Amino acid sequence: MTDAQVKMLISMVLYMAVVIAIGIYFSKRANKNSDEYFLGGRSLGPWVTAMSAEASDMSGWLLMGLPGIAYWLGISDAFWTAVGLAIGTYLNWLLVAKRLRRYSVKIDAITVPDYFSKRFHEVDGKKILLTIASIFILVFFSVYAGSCFVACGKLFSTLFGLPYVPMMIIGAVFVIIYTFLGGFLAESASDFMQAIVMIVALSVVLSVGTVAAGGFGAVIENAKNIPGFFELFGIATPVLGENGLQLVENGKPVFDEAGTYGIITILSTLSWGLGYFGMPQVLLRFMAARKTDEIAISRRIATVWVVISLAAAVAVGVIGRALLPTEEALLSSSVAENVFIIICGKLLPPLLAGVIMSGILAATISSSDSYLLIAASAFSKNLYQGIFHKNATDKQVMRCSKIVLVIIALFGVVVALDENSVIFNVVSFAWAGFGATFGPLMLISLFWKKVTRSAAIAGMLSGGAMVFIWEYVFTPMGKNLGISVLTVYELLPAFLVSTAVIFLVSKFTKAPDKEILDEFEAVSAIE
Known about the structure:
It contains 18 helices and 4 strands. With 527 residues, it is an all-alpha fold.
């Protein structure tokens, strides 16, 4: 290991030590009982609520996946995805946050499955909504955790030239230890700090990279010279050799003619924004907010953070094409996700590079601890205590959650064993899963009192199932037959199907009991 690599490692170790210290600081309170461990006693202030929600949501995808897509294919895919996410962020805070916070307090719900179950007054022995929601959380968060571990492995492997798998496992172990210590409060406090690190890291790399590439004008000129790269309605097409890497001729990367980026594809990428309505890690922050009146402040903070971060991430990918057009370590779609790391390593002093690179660790940790904690709570609080062992004590629930946390992390490690995984693709599938499974039901259950329990079950199942059906049946069919409408992002059709099913089934099933309707009216009256 070189002297520069040692200095970078020292910076990153110091950063991880600070994160661990936060976990230790909050460990006593977090382990007092399961409500504190899973929801922090609904004590999050507006800044922590906003910043922790966004940091836990973005993950290593923000600093690796999004810049990688922009570097590889140009701005269209990354731009429209970012626009969809920015709109989705704002609307989620505007429409869902206050209402969910009030409703969850009214029915004493501390997890998303708990909210759905209590919203429809499920009784013992018939907690179907609770069970379905918990199972979907376990499945999709295991995949999500895997994407975070991929980011850890790629980071350390690229930086230090060390084997991918051992580095990925070390990152996973660190996340497990941290989540064990502090629970939701530690996670939210560190996520606040990590959101700051992430946006600073993006800003520094954006500024330094632009200067090194010859200025803003030179970056734009380079992008315009690549067919489809700097177009909102076109897309770049890298030409690959037999080894699967982009061809380089006369010192320049080779591109084919620009591909088209039509209205269907734009709607597909914009639909990323729909996912926010079903993201448990974000919804949980709404439920944990200290005061409903502070949510408007959180909405402004979160929206500004998201817009700046997404814009900077896309720009880093574009700058990377000007700065490192033929970098051997960036010549495939998978390794192109290392563009942020390589720019840092080449342009910044080692100690500063280590601090900035901690932004990737920040993104990864802030997301993976949320995923593991929510998945563990879904099993221990909702299934173990809610169904299998109703008389379980708080200590038993806590013990169960930590065992499940380790099991889920191990599954995530298995998902992450393939170092050629494209983080963007892994995240997009899990994002679609949550968005379609929980999103329509969350919106409808908060704003329509006549939705029925049967409709809720049908909507959740149809949305989750359609994600798999569209991804593994319709998308391959569309690619083979050249039918573009069948290749849209699976979240869009799955979200629409779930919404339609909820409305239709509600019309043809027994209306909710008066008690449920009165409860809905009581929450509405608080507005």
